[in-house]
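Consider a concrete sample entry:
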Amino acid sequence: MPAKIVVLFPTATEASLFRSDDVISIVSGVGLTCTAYATMKAIYEHRPDWLILSGIAGVFPHSDMKIGDVALVEAEVESDLGFFTKDGFIHMAHLPIEMDFERRHTLHCPHFPEDLDMRRARGISVNAAMAPFIDTTQSDLENMEGGAFFHVCLKEQQRFIELRAISNIVSTEDDQWDMMGSVAAMTEGLHRLIRHLQQG
């Protein structure tokens, strides 16, 4: 029996070119809150073997990736979760405060198919795109959903993968975008990923 696969797309635009009779696709909404809800609902309504988040993302100028590239996301950080202090922004995980809570920073995906030749990238998730105060030095991509998706899947012990295609440069000074070109590249990469998971 082929693997039961559910794909979440943040927007209908990102889902617009995807066609598969064997896969359940859901438009989950933009942002961390919508994604957390949609991820949990998909897990409990469909009980998938694999849950995929597929969408477009911005690339940071320091990354060697370019518009149109496709990658599997190996790590996510909810990067704008924290406090502003007199010394600047401090991530919640690093906040020097005597309070008992889960200090969550970098989340990793443990479910990569080792024999699938696809690029890997590191992502950050934000509610405010292109925020100037966050640390981007260890990341390639910016998106608005991945951190919530990783967190829920890890907590629920759900096998998951995030796939992103580069649509734009993360810079207020560089307005390069290729929306539909990146959606087409993402869709092609998604079909390739799904074929591999179904064969496994």
